[in-house]
Give the backbone structure.
Amino acid sequence: MSCGKSELRFALVDVNNFYASCETVFDPKLVGKPLVVLSNNDGCVIARSAEAKALGIKMAVPWHHLQDLARNHHVVAYSSNYELYGDMSHRVMTILGEMAPGHEVYSIDEAFLDFTGMPEIHSKGLSIRQRIRQWTGLPVCIGVGSTKTRAKLANHIAKKFIEHQGVFDLEVLTPDDQEIWLQRLPVEEVWGIGYRIAKALREAGIETVADLKNADPKALRQNFSVVVERIVEELRGVSCLSLETLTSPRKQIVSSRSFGRPVTTFEELRQAAVAYVSTAAERLRQQESLTTVLQVFAHTNQFKPDKPQYSRAISMKLPFATDDTLTLAMFTAAGIKDIYRTGFEFKKVGVMLMELSPKAIRQTTLFEDSDRLERRSQLNLSVDAINRRFGRTTVSIAASGVDRVWKMSRGCLSPRYTTTWEGLVKAI
């Protein structure tokens, strides 16, 4: 375990209630109202405003279970606007990249910054908060610590205790004051401690973050895992997780969605699979990789046991490594033809690209047409550029369909304020 005591300073920047905040930025009438954002096909709650949390609305609760509560408390619900959230995330991460010597995008709404050796850390944090609020309208909180785990905890404190103005530096406190704060936090607030581990720790008498920090790491490793041992070391100020400024290429790429309504025909199932492999191919090119194995899968709705059930997946070894959308679409269509069966209501279809390798070390074949491959590569890159600028499906394969009646249902979708002309806010 490569851990070492150091004077590192990590800052975790986290957008408060990210999805809900994105909606509020462009619709000020939502400020102060309980707001929830729903999952694919408007199924479950995946994001909540502070007001919705105050009503006791939990994550992953089915929306149809909340109808009475929503009616009585005027809860507003929106479908997931992935285009809006992705663009707003990119704007936030771009700002952060300009305000620190190193940064790691951890998730769509979180990033670690390198604050090592930086003077007046609290003032720097306030400056970051002000700039993001001014340039994007989004509220963020910042936690600072000598390790990533301590920075996560500091961020939690910054969010929960408004007297710190959204910025909390754990390292400026005396050891006694740090202990007081850690004693106030339940053990499940530690990054990497899930429900099951937290329950087991409580049974062992470890109730708070301070209890975990002061526990014997070797004994925890023996009773739990090396991960828990590492967490204890991080809580003690021994950095085991470095700042990863370069994103590692994915080893697999999956693209799938549940349908807005059951799909029964071969044509619709093929259209959806081709659309999803087109998305996967674009991601493949973004990380400059090639694939040699394609898996296509489809299944019915397991939560409807009264309906006939069917699930099938097929993996195909490609004759050569590729990132070409048309080639992958051809094999995907062949895979769907093999696994499709009549008499079933399909709920989901998807593709997985496997055995990925860097494009830079691609091995050529004896009879390949290099000119044709170059033209196809330029075509793919041109389509990617057009879709990035004008919207994902501006240019698409005809085999992926036009009407796409099978697509995900988003009945409460807000405008795509930042990515389409139709979504632009209008001044009246």
Notes: The longest helix spans residues 266-286. The CA atoms of residues 301 and 347 lie 5 Å apart. The mean pLDDT is 90.
